[in-house]
Amino acid sequence: MLEGAELYFNVDHGYLEGLVRGCKASLLTQQDYINLVQCETLEDLKIHLQTTDYGNFLANQTNPLTVSKIDTEMRKRLCGEFEYFRNHSLEPLSTFLTYMTCSYMIDNVILLMNGALQKKSVKEILGKCHPLGRFTEMEAVNIAETPSDLFNAILIETPLAPFFQDCMSENALDELNIELLRNKLYKSYLEAFYKFCKNHGDVTADVMCPILEFEADRRAFIITLNSFGTELSKEDRETLYPTFGKLYPEGLRLLAQAEDFDQMKNVADHYGVYKPLFEAVGGSGGKTLEDVFYEREVQMNVLAFNRQFHYGVFYAYVKLKEQEMRNIVWIAECISQRHRTKINSYIPIL
Amino acid sequence: MGSMFRSEEVALVQLFLPTAAAYTCVSRLGELGLVEFRDLNASVSAFQRRFVVDVRRCEELEKTFTFLQEEVRRAGLVLLPPEGRLPAPPPRDLLRIQEETERLAQELRDVRGNQQALRAQLHQLQLHAAVLGQGHGPQLAAAHTDATSERMPLLQAPGGPHQDLRVNFVAGAVEPHKAPALERLLWRACRGFLIASFRELEQPLEHPVTGEPATWMTFLISYWGEQIGQKIRKITDCFHCHVFPFLEQEEARRGALRQLQQQSQELQEVLGETERFLSQVLGRVLQLLPPGQVQVHKMKAVYLALNQCSVSTTHKCLIAEAWCSVRDLPALQEALRDSSTEEGVSAVAHRIPCRDMPPTLIRTNRFTASFQGIVDAYGVGRYQEVNPAPYTIITFPFLFAVMFGDVGHGLLMFLFALAMVLAENRPAVKAAQNEIWQTFFRGRYLLLLMGLFSIYTGFIYNECFSRATSIFPSGWSVAAMANQSGWSDAFLAQHATLTLDPNVTGVFLGPYPFGIDPVWSLAANHLSFLNSFKMKMSVILGVVHMAFGVVLGVFNHVHFGQKHRLLLETLPELTFLLGLFGYLVFLVIYKWLCVSAASAASAPSILIHFINMFLFSHSPTNRPLYPRQEVVQATLVVLALAMVPVLLLGTPLHLLRRHRPHLRRRPAGRQEEDKAGLLDLPDASVNGWSSDEEKAGGLDDEEEAELVPSEVLMHQAIHTIEFCLGCVSNTASYLRLWALSLAHAQLSEVLWAMVMSIGLGLSREVGVAAVVLVPIFAAFAVMTVVILLVMEGLSAFLHALRLHWVEFQNKFYSGTGYRLSPFTFAATDD
């Protein structure tokens, strides 16, 4: 792509960028959160949400209101917005948006396979699937017995197909293999997405690459953390790390050798970006590593809006909206379980 | 009509509403639409207010109403608006309405559910029948025998019983858009161990939920082996296919088909019954819904208003604060009395003093509304400031007409507006939803006057569709000129243009009685004559209009008790404007009156005179208009320039001087000073709240103490610069009157010359001419309407609007108020 997106970006994507910026402006403000936290019941929460841009989205819900209903409706709303973006997008933005849905599709496929393994009914699991990652063939996932089966029969026509090249195997799909499959898929997905953004160049690359690099590093950390005390060998672990990002390659090699959290922290200390994050863990308010990463993600996504003429705003908006939904669900859970002491540990979107 | 000149007096009233009667009182006020409630609980969030439970109940009810409405809409019925005015129901009725609605909704839900289930069942039956009757049979049988003949011929004869055991079928229907994906997935997942045949249904079936016709693809899959069968079933499940048992024997299938048809017939009868019952229920909904909706809407509005009230310390009554026009106070009192006597208690309203600026209330009728709208579009007037709308009624159409002057065009516009005015009471016209139409319709009286004035100015310009009319005999005589100068026929034939000299006796007999002499339309210098006239006219109109604006400021100053501004602002402003530009107007009129054709050769140039006036010089070639002209001019310029410092420094110095003794005396006798301050204020209302009086007085003083000299000076400097430069630029701005009217005249001239006059000159034979003229006239008419009436009209409207908003209103109108928006049910009633 030629440099100088300013010249022609708006011809194809100006409308959608304006729209997404408008949507971003409708995110809940600090004041809204303060009001939400004060709610006594879910009904109050609903009334307050009505005064924000969420409007009457819960109006047609039958009583009693539950957290899962709120969650589902919010997801539906986000999905509606995203579908609108997608239906009005032109290349290469539509490819970009497809890439964005892929992560949800991976999650859904894995979720279904896990469900099939535990002999749960497909309907039940479908309810838990993220609507952004829905596709027609999804429900047929449980007929597959091996990854190559899965690929050949079901996923070959979906956007997920290219990510499968690394994980074709004839192993039976047990729990560990599914988890490995998920991580491998995610790895090749992230790499492909990163490559796409890099090749696209311009502001999109400037904005998206750091975000994706952070995402890759976060995955590496989380994989490491989750593999402590499991039968996953260190070599296998290393194959799951996405091969780009700030940690690549030195940090990843070190991470592969890490055996407990402290060693992981030592690795992170070599990196100016991650050192403060690890230091914040467990500090005031008992933050978990996950929280810290979420906060960092929110920061990066908010910064994405400071530049114009790039696709990163779409990614950032969806991520911010997701964070907002997590916050609302958190607050709603705290309210419904009368567990008010932790209600303030949502992650503010600045 | 008196209230048009400035907004009505509005007072803050405190209403004490006894708890028992609060609801009825507020509901009555909503019907009358007299008061605007102030939110006394702004700091309380929406769900912590007093009547939130009632509001929520109303919302619940509205939700049910929405459901019912949706059902009615789906049944293709139209809800009629309720007849008559329905008051907000008493609170105890809410339960009854709620119960009734709930019952009806439940009934409707049941019936609808039944109907839905029946239809789904019927749909299934129809699909099944379609699958069976689709005729996959013979084709499949062929494929079947083919397949077997390839594999089995050596072992067994085709058609043997053994082979039938091993072939199984899955038959069903799927939505067409999923069919290709399904087919591919089946093929891939089962590695081709199956034969699938897909076929589109010939006639679309009704969708059981939406009732829309939808086509389906039926399919028949034959496969070998049980494992594959399971896979196929899973796959068809995941595509949400309808799968039906498919009997292998042709005979059995036919039997099943007959049975299905019979079943579906029975089902259809039942369905018919259900639908009849459904329409009965819907009929009841139709009766109940519209009044219920209005009532509950009102009820919710009442509770929302009550939520804005605060509770008295004794919990016996609610206290509301509201803005109310002073004229409506008796009506308010009466309404409160009426609606509270039933409960045996009385609600009270009394005025309280207020430091906030009250809202602006100007009552309009259907005639004045559009003119007030023009003013309000710029900004709603400050409380009690002079309202430009009554003057706009005349000046706006007039300035428009100056730019749009043409008898024909004006007449068309007038007739269009007249038609709207005459038809305004017809319901069809009122109910029209078209936005553009509504815009025109709301401005019908404005259009009427604009058309009327355009006819008038059209007569002045003597133009009707760009043609001049000679109603009176022309004041110029060509015969006299020809006789006097002895033009021969040969001379006339040689010269295309000849000059009429008004100095020759008998040629110019006197001015035309009204407007421009039609003879000018023949003249070669028609345009330069009109230009001179229109330019001067524009300047005269502009200066008069602006001076009028400055004079209107006087009423503001007098009303607000700022007498010093009369002397320090209005007077300098008027002197400046009239001394410079008023003098220009004088020069123009003086020259019109005193310089005749006889002295035309040596006529003085106003332009040069006016420039020289500022340069304090004089040019020897330019004859003075009157004796001692230079002295007068020098005096005027000096006077006007002297007014600038007065305007710049007068008000700030006056304010500072008045303010300083205040400061000095303050420590001495604060109490008296406070009282005096209060009395000085023209708006401070008499009140019985002694505790508040102190506070108000104190506040007042503090406010005056905040008078920062630099700020006042800065403000006044900006105002001065704006006014003085504005006088120059605004006068020039009025020249748009000339420009637009010139453009309009030229455009209609061009249209006539290029279309109509060519058409008229095309043929001499009557028959041909008549035929040719039809399309030509059609083109002329369409272009006249589209270009000259609509386009030119809009542009002239826009410029008239600008002249009012900028040039006229900035002389006196601040437009920083806010409108009184009373609590009213009117919108709900409509």
Automatic annotation (TrEMBL), chain A:
Entry keyword Kinase: no
Alphabetized Gene3D superfamilies for the sequence: ATP synthase (C/AC39) subunit, domain 3 (1.10.132.50), V-type ATP synthase subunit C domain (1.20.1690.10)
Quaternary structure (record): V-ATPase is a heteromultimeric enzyme made up of two complexes: the ATP-hydrolytic V1 complex and the proton translocation V0 complex. The V1 complex consists of three catalytic AB heterodimers that form a heterohexamer, three peripheral stalks each consisting of EG heterodimers, one central rotor including subunits D and F, and the regulatory subunits C and H. The proton translocation complex V0 consists of the proton transport subunit a, a ring of proteolipid subunits c9c'', rotary subunit d, subunits e and f, and the accessory subunits ATP6AP1/Ac45 and ATP6AP2/PRR.
Pfam families found in the cross-reference section: vATP-synt_AC39 (PF01992)
GO cellular component: apical plasma membrane; endosome; phagocytic vesicle membrane; proton-transporting V-type ATPase, V0 domain; vacuolar proton-transporting V-type ATPase complex
Family per record: Belongs to the V-ATPase V0D/AC39 subunit family.
Coiled coil spans: none
Gene coding for it: ATP6V0D2
InterPro entries (alphabetical): ATPase_csu/dsu_sf, ATPase_V0-cplx_csu/dsu, ATPase_V0-cplx_dsu, V-type_ATPase_csu/dsu, V-type_ATPase_csu/dsu_dom_3
Source organism of this protein record: Rhinopithecus bieti
Entry superkingdom: Eukaryota
Name this polypeptide is given: V-type proton ATPase subunit
GO MF annotation list: proton-transporting ATPase activity, rotational mechanism
PANTHER family xref list: VACUOLAR ATP SYNTHASE SUBUNIT AC39 (PTHR11028)
Keywords of the record: Hydrogen ion transport, Ion transport, Transport
Task of the protein: Subunit of the V0 complex of vacuolar(H+)-ATPase (V-ATPase), a multisubunit enzyme composed of a peripheral complex (V1) that hydrolyzes ATP and a membrane integral complex (V0) that translocates protons. V-ATPase is responsible for acidifying and maintaining the pH of intracellular compartments and in some cell types, is targeted to the plasma membrane, where it is responsible for acidifying the extracellular environment. May play a role in coupling of proton transport and ATP hydrolysis. Regulator of osteoclast fusion and bone formation.
Automatic annotation (TrEMBL), chain B:
Any one cellular-component term (Gene Ontology): phagocytic vesicle membrane
Top-level taxon in the UniProt lineage: Eukaryota
UniProt membrane topology term: Multi-pass membrane protein
Residue ranges the record marks as coiled coil: none
Span list, region Disordered: 681-701
A Pfam cross-reference name: V_ATPase_I
Protein's UniProt keywords contain ATP-binding: no
One of the record's GO molecular function terms: proton-transporting ATPase activity, rotational mechanism
Keywords linked to the UniProt accession: Hydrogen ion transport, Ion transport, Membrane, Transmembrane, Transmembrane helix, Transport
InterPro entries recorded: V-ATPase_116kDa_su, V-type_ATPase_116kDa_su_euka
Similarity section: Belongs to the V-ATPase 116 kDa subunit family.
Protein name per its UniProtKB record: V-type proton ATPase subunit a
High-level lineage: Eukaryota, Metazoa, Chordata, Craniata, Vertebrata
